[in-house]
Structures are given as structure tokens and as C-alpha cells.
Design a protein that fits this description.
Belongs to the ABC transporter superfamily. By secondary structure, the protein is of the alpha/beta class. It has helices at residues 40-48, 70-75, 93-101, 107-117, 134-147, 164-179, 192-198, 224-235; strands spanning 2-11, 14-24, 28-33, 53-60, 63-64, 78-81, 152-156, 184-188, 199-206, 209-215. It binds adenosine-5'-diphosphate and magnesium ion.
Amino acid sequence: MLELDGVRAGYGRTEVIHGVSLTVPVDGVAAVMGHNGAGKTTLLRAAVGLISVNSGKVLFDGEDVTTLRPSARVARGLAYVPQGQQSFGQLTTAENLQVVADGRKRGKELIGEALDLFPALRGLLERRAGLLSGGQRQQLAIARALITEPKMLILDEPTEGIQPSVVAEIERTIVALTRRGGLGVLLVEQHIGFALESAERYYVLESGRVTSSGAGGAAPESDVRTAVSDVRAAMAI
Ligand SMILES: Nc1ncnc2c1ncn2[C@@H]1O[C@H](COP(=O)(O)OP(=O)(O)O)[C@@H](O)[C@H]1O
Ligand SMILES: [Mg+2]
């Protein structure tokens, strides 16, 4: 479980996140929604340790990781796929996967498992990542993150700017991943329908504060339509 407790963070003297608390389940999705500039990416950076937290706590599996470096959090099972599908553009798909798998005992097996989840990548193994489409790059980025065998996967707008058919494929895979068990997902997502269907819990972020939260469609006895209308009201859309 990943838990943020009253987190304040920002850039230099500018505080962007003003005391956010949220919980990501051990198995399942917590979705964060909000307009551009609300602070979603900044919140994820604070959770991963890429920016420091001014006050409040980040807990992972009950351990206080607030001051741990990003690499130490990754070693504990946190994986982060930043917004914008970053991979090594000059390396092939296969090399991008291999770079992460190197030094891991189950490296080869993990690459196989990642390719099973994203079969479209199998036909692209020799292609340079820089030549992949946005959707393919996103799949590669998630596949790379999964090779680190995370307990918690943090995804920043995985379907942004991607053609609808591939969006559906990525969404299916995210849901399938959490159903396998043993993986929590903190998902920042603009597609409210998908976010709320897949999520156990949702949070709406506005100007660095949580202005609405509740049970998502994956929570027991919840009603996704109520959640959608609550979120639309909170976001004034
Ligand atoms: N590297 C940065 N340095 C200074 N301010 C930043 C930086 N990145 C983002 N911000 C500011 O933080 C606020 C939240 O941005 P961001 O977290 O990217 O929002 P979102 O992901 O919700 O669109 C914005 O006002 C943005 O201008
Ligand atoms: Mg963002």
C-alpha cells in the first residue's frame, strides 16, 4: 500500500501541492483526476521522490519512505512511468527492455511476461523506440516498468495523445494487471470513464488540493455512474 499523508511539495519556494492525503490499495487502482496544472504530475513526483516533500509523509508498505531517494523506492517495489512515454529513442524495443532486465535473475522471463501483456511489441523488437507510435511507446514504457517487478505502479496519463484503439488496449492491460493480484496502481488519467471504472478509489485534485474523493467502480457496492457525476460536478465539466 502507498499512502500520502498531508503531503506538501513544489518547486523551490513555490508550493504546488498543499497537503494531499491519499491511499493506493495493495491490489487495485487509485485514480487521480484534475484539470491541467492542478498538480497531478507534481504529486506523483513527490510520491516517487523526484522532488522533496516539504511536510507530510509518504508511506510504502507501512514504511516511511519520505526522505528515501527514488532508487531506494524503486528497490522496494515502486515503479513510475512518467507522462510522455519516455524510453531510449536510439535503442530498439528489445534493447529498451533488456536494459531494465540486465542483472535481474529472471530477466529473460520478465521480458517474456511483459511481451505477453503487450503482444503488439513482439513485432517491434528490432525497431528503434524513437520510431514507435505514441501508443507503442507507452506500451513499451509500461512493459519496462513491469520488468522491475513492482508492487506499486505509478502511471501519469498513460493514454494521453494516443489513438482510441490503442487506448482501449492499454486500459484493458492495466485492469488485467491489477486483477492478477499483487499490484497496486496509482493512475493519473483524463479519461474519467475508464479511470472510475477501474478504480477502487478516486481523488479529484484542484490547485494542489483534493476537492473530492470517493469509491470508484471497482469498489464493492459502488455505483460508477454516481462516481462519474460526482467527479464531473467537482471538476465543473
Ligand atoms: N519543473 C517545474 N518548475 C516549476 N513549476 C512547475 C514545474 N513543473 C510544473 N510546475 C507548475 O506546477 C503546477 C502543477 O503542474 P503539474 O503538476 O504538471 O500539473 P498537472 O500534471 O496536473 O497538469 C503548474 O502551475 C506548473 O506550472
Ligand atoms: Mg501532468
